[in-house]
């Protein structure tokens, strides 16, 4: 049988024309290789023939103007002026207040402190400078920072940072005196500032080691001539349900651990005359843990104020063996925080001063407390009682 397949695809009697396929001069892989090679050649040419050693790095043009130099003598190269250890710059304002900027020459840190009332700028600046960094003779380095210590020449923080003048102390020796200590400061800048600015300088202020910037607030208090104490968090009976805060001194810790925690607290700010307890009813009643604490407080030249809230406190008897300044508060002024009860408590405090020669009251910085104390103080001396800083009352109580 004859094969007629080819004849069916062409006209009858014609020979079929063979089909031609289009062929490229190179394959697809060859084309890709050629293209990559071309890119590489262009890149290498740019690198070798372009006179830019930075190779496309970001650039910035800075115009430098050179000061004219005399042809006679070359310009002297002077080292930059040395910064002092610290400096105080005072800027007066229209309302009688002054803003003192303390500049730490070593770190460059700045602290602005507002000072009100009369007084020479240099004296204000000096008091603020001492409050910010403390007297360098009365500081030593710990693993937590600088902490107070008695100086080699016998000077102690209790005396160095005490408020008041010799004339005030001589006057206080001849009449009944009252000291008011406002505690719980440093946490809450508004209430702390109110206590600093609204209460007279003879009112002493106690700061907790907490707060974002306790050093600045303490510096402001010292600039206003308030005497300052550090409140040390101690274990209460209902701890840990009632927790004073981080680094609290505990009856379950050894002496070395509690002293290390105390050093952390001591390093938070400087310029204080002594310590007082923050809570701590269980801790102050345990002689085994209070004895190392009292001994360390005395060694560092600080006084100690027992807030009087714990009847079983052993602080007084332990302090007697250390020959250190000590006092116990007679009452909590705002135990019941109403105007009527605060006024009654202040009257009792005044009566105690008349009978014994000296009395000490503790209070918080509640607005009602600050207001009622401010009113009471205005007429206090007219009734024969003098308001004094805590250190004056402590020394007078000891001499009685």
From TrEMBL:
Positions of region (Disordered): 1-20, 71-128
Keywords recorded for this protein, A-Z: Membrane, Transmembrane, Transmembrane helix
User: Keyword Membrane on this protein?
Assistant: yes
Give me the stretches of Polar residues compositional bias.
Answer: 92-110
| One GO term (biological process) | carbohydrate metabolic process
Q: Which InterPro entries match?
A: Divergent_DAC, Glyco_hydro/deAcase_b/a-brl
- TM helices/strands, residue ranges: 28-49
Domain of life of the native organism? Bacteria
Q: What is this protein called?
A: Divergent polysaccharide deacetylase family protein
Q: Which organism is it from?
A: Nitrobacter winogradskyi (Nitrobacter agilis)
Taxonomic placement: Bacteria, Pseudomonadati, Pseudomonadota, Alphaproteobacteria, Hyphomicrobiales
């Amino acid at each position: 049988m004859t094969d007629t397949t080819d004849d069916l695809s062409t006209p009858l009697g014609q020979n079929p024309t063979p089909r031609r396929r289009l062929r490229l001069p190179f394959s697809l892989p060859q084309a890709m290789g050629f293209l990559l090679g071309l890119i590489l050649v262009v890149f290498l040419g740019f690198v070798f023939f372009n006179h830019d050693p930075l190779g496309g790095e970001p650039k910035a043009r800075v115009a430098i103007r050179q000061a004219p130099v005399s042809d006679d003598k070359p310009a002297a190269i002077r080292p930059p002026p040395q910064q002092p250890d610290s400096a105080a710059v005072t800027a007066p304002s229209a309302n009688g207040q002054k803003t003192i900027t303390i500049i730490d020459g070593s770190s460059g840190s700045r602290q602005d402190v507002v000072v009100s009332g009369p007084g020479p700028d240099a004296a204000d600046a000096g008091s603020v400078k001492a409050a910010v960094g403390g007297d360098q003779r009365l500081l030593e380095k710990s693993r937590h920072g600088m902490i107070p210590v008695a100086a080699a020449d016998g000077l102690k923080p209790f005396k160095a940072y005490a408020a008041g003048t010799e004339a005030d102390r001589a006057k206080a020796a001849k009449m009944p005196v009252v000291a008011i200590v406002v505690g719980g400061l440093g946490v809450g800048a508004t209430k702390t500032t109110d206590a600093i600015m609204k209460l007279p300088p003879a009112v002493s202020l106690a700061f907790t080691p907490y707060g974002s910037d306790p050093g600045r607030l303490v510096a402001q208090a010292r600039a206003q001539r308030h005497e300052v104490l550090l409140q040390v968090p101690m274990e209460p009976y209902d701890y840990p349900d009632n927790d004073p805060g981080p680094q609290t001194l505990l009856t379950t810790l050894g002496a070395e651990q509690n002293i290390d925690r105390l050093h952390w607290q001591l390093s938070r700010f400087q310029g204080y005359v002594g310590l007082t307890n923050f809570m701590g009813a269980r801790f102050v009643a345990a002689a085994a843990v209070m004895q190392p604490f009292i001994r360390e407080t005395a060694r560092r030249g600080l006084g100690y104020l027992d807030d009087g809230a714990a009847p079983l406190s052993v602080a007084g008897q332990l302090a007697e063996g250390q020959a250190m300044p000590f006092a116990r508060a007679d009452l909590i002024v705002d135990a019941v925080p109403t105007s009527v009860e605060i006024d009654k408590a202040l009257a009792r405090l005044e009566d105690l001063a008349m009978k014994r020669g000296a009395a000490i009251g503790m209070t918080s910085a509640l607005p009602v407390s600050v207001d009622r104390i401010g009113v009471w103080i205005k007429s206090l001396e007219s009734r024969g009682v003098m308001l004094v800083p805590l250190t004056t009352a402590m020394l007078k109580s000891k001499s009685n």
